[in-house]
Amino acid sequence: MSSSIRILLVGNGGREHALAWKLSQSPNVESIVVVPGNGGTAGLPNVTNNSAVAADDYPGLVALAQKERINLVVPGPEAPLVDGIEGFFRDAGIACFGPSKEAARMEGSKTFSKDFMKKHNIPTAAYENFSDYNQASEYLRTIKHNVVIKATGIAAGKGVIIPQSQEEAQQALKDIMLEKQFGSAGDEVVIEEFLTGDELSILSFCDGTTIKSLPAAQDHKRIGDGDTGLNTGGMGCYAPTKIATKALLEQIDREILQPTIDGMRKDGFPFRGCLFTGLMITADGPKTLEYNVRFGDPETQTVLPLLESDLADIMQACAYPNTLLKYVPVEVAQRFSATVVVSAPGYPESYPKNIPMQVAAAPADTTIFHAGTKLSGDSLLSAGGRVIAANATGETLRAAVDKAYEGVKLINFEGMHYRKDIAYRAFRDENKSEKLTYAQSGVSIDAGNDLVDRIKAAVKTTRRPGADAVIGGFGGEVDLSQAGYPSAPIVVGAIDGVGTKLIIAQKMNKHDTVGIDLVAMNVNDLVVQGAEPFMFLDYYGCSKLDINTAASFVEGVATGCREAGCALVGGETAEMPDLYTGDDYDAAGAAIGVMKASQRLPRKEAMIEGDVLIGMASSGVHSNGFSLVRRVVATRGLSYTDKAPWGTSGVTVGESLLTPTKIYVKSLLKVLGEHGEAVRGMAHITGGGLSENVPRMLPDHLAAEIDVAAWEHPPVFQWLRQSVVPVEMARTFNNGIGMVVAVQAGSEKEIIAALEAEGEKVYQIGRLVKRGAESNGCDLQNLGTWAA
């Protein structure tokens, strides 16, 4: 191997900056030319950028290499390798750290790589390949399991779609194969089984025979915290991972990595370079997700700071045809590394470029790796979607992560975005005991239930004809025909407030939606008893009356009343500066409805085992559990004006949380009018969640058996589950189901169709079963799938 190495490095991303940074530390490296390079590579010792030759002009690159007396070529991205750049330099007698065009098919065609895995018995997910859109679409309709859809060609790390529903899957297929979202990469797709578990990325040096791996890493593909939002090239990474035990790594070497290298050699295309293997650690062991034929990004920025051996020596050992890697050490520091990627505003969709940037000097153990940056004179400008990253190493993972986020503070440009939860999976187990409960946020569901039990006796003393004065249902009722008004209907009343959701409204200065919430909370409680709301009254208490705030709130109340079909007939406004402070206000409302005795719900005496439970989709968190929601937002370090980490629409945390409670009155009244006899009961899922509310409509001998995997869960709940244990989620939030309807078995299809005709999103979520001795009346199946 040469002791005077002159390197041509092809690429301009964060990976290439990290490679140039590490290679420049080798005493054997004389010079590095980067084509085209970026604002970070330009500042490294013995490194020069060259944009005179295009990165895809392979004859031009060969000529440049010959002019600069290059003796080692390092292609960074996948595109040149898939194009066959290695062959151009092999023909010129110049060593290339990277696979041949034939070997690069392992990344260039996911169809090829999946078939390779099947041939060599390498564990992977079940799959099918499609080049015909109609056949792929029909296949999606026939399967029940969740899938991953992959554009078979190279797509800059973004050609993998994980749809959450049949509709999303069909849309993704259309985007890839018909709309050509990823160009010709989508001419063929792989539809494979969605695997669950923890992902690992392993970068391995290979010389065609020997394989030596760097520490296992875990990246974060989604743009938003909690792995929400669109896929990206990678928003952060950490290594080594806690799940990559010695035994697991030995199993991966034995069952996946070595068989891969051996299989490629036996098939006539030995692999030389860096093999990136994406893995899912499932309950059945490690399975291969994909191969990349180059260093990963941001994995490279994460693992190279741990490498103690000379990277240039390792690359030479792999690039030469003499299989020398077994003689070259690959040693890594016994430390941890974390990388936080900072992206341009709007990424991974359209984003601006040429944003002026400032980057301060980094302290020891922290490195700023440039990606989409460029120099314009002495000014640093953004030039890509993933703009720059902060890496740090430490004695513990927590120390490395904390230092990486301190490194992010050294970076400044307008609209910069980064995830705030890098390595959250690694901290998941140690944080399990720290997950929040509603009680920790200052609210006790148990205390509320105890209060109801304690005051029942006092309430019962107020009985009068027509009213039995029994509390604990969704609303209270008086039978006017028994109270001295012959032939009069039953009057039903409900009273409720909005709770601490008002605090978010005050912080966002948006008050109309909580007015809708106030109406929804009351009228939904009426309709579950079979009543039609006909009038509403509100109460508004504050420190000092702000006319604009109060008017906006009441306008929201009026909107809610129109949606529910009831009249806003009056209200009360009170200024109490000694009780409230600043801009604080509180609100309560009361709804009054009517029904005939034959319309009264629930019909507990008619309920039997086998009756079907239908769930009606919620619009979000609705209006309960906000003390806990606000606690989670605070512990995650979010502001209400930050972009919501669980969404893709760009709305802020506050805007998303202020989505008003869905009003179900009109659709349910229509179904009750047309199918009333088949409806046994209804439960409005408010405070207490599914666990506490569904049993309120049931007789003592029956329980609701509900499969929590039976409906689509809004992303906000998936995000909350990272901080709240499943049982607490179930007894605090609606989790995507705002109303549960119990119907006679055999009528469910007809009733679901009727509700869908009214615009509702409806799911069959369970059935009534015999209540066991240990049951609380609501048995939630698959609750463990909510564990983050």
UniProtKB/TrEMBL annotation:
Catalysed reaction equations from the record: 5-phospho-beta-D-ribosylamine + glycine + ATP = N(1)-(5-phospho-beta-D-ribosyl)glycinamide + ADP + phosphate + H(+); 2-formamido-N(1)-(5-O-phospho-beta-D-ribosyl)acetamidine + ATP = 5-amino-1-(5-phospho-beta-D-ribosyl)imidazole + ADP + phosphate + H(+)
Pfam family, one: GARS_A
Annotated InterPro entries: ATP-grasp, ATP_grasp_subdomain_1, PreATP-grasp_dom_sf, PRibGlycinamid_synth_ATP-grasp, PRibGlycinamide_synth, PRibGlycinamide_synth_C-dom, PRibGlycinamide_synth_C_sf, PRibGlycinamide_synth_CS
UniProt keyword Cytoplasm present: no
Protein origin, superkingdom: Eukaryota
Domain ATP-grasp: 114-320
PROSITE patterns, per the entry: ATP_GRASP (PS50975), GARS (PS00184)
UniProt GO BP: 'de novo' IMP biosynthetic process; adenine biosynthetic process
Cofactor: Mg(2+)
Gene Ontology CC: cytosol
Pathway assigned to this chain's UniProt record: Purine metabolism; IMP biosynthesis via de novo pathway; N(1)-(5-phospho-D-ribosyl)glycinamide from 5-phospho-alpha-D-ribose 1-diphosphate: step 2/2; Purine metabolism; IMP biosynthesis via de novo pathway; 5-amino-1-(5-phospho-D-ribosyl)imidazole from N(2)-formyl-N(1)-(5-phospho-D-ribosyl)glycinamide: step 2/2
UniProt entry keywords in alphabetical sequence: ATP-binding, Ligase, Magnesium, Manganese, Metal-binding, Multifunctional enzyme, Nucleotide-binding, Purine biosynthesis
Keyword Magnesium in record: yes
GO molecular function, one term: phosphoribosylamine-glycine ligase activity
UniProt similarity note: In the C-terminal section; belongs to the AIR synthase family. In the N-terminal section; belongs to the GARS family.
Role this protein plays: Catalyzes the second and fifth step in the 'de novo' purine biosynthesis pathway; contains phosphoribosylamine--glycine ligase (GARS) and phosphoribosylformylglycinamidine cyclo-ligase (AIRS) activities.
Protein's recorded name: Phosphoribosylglycinamide synthetase
Native species: Cercophora scortea
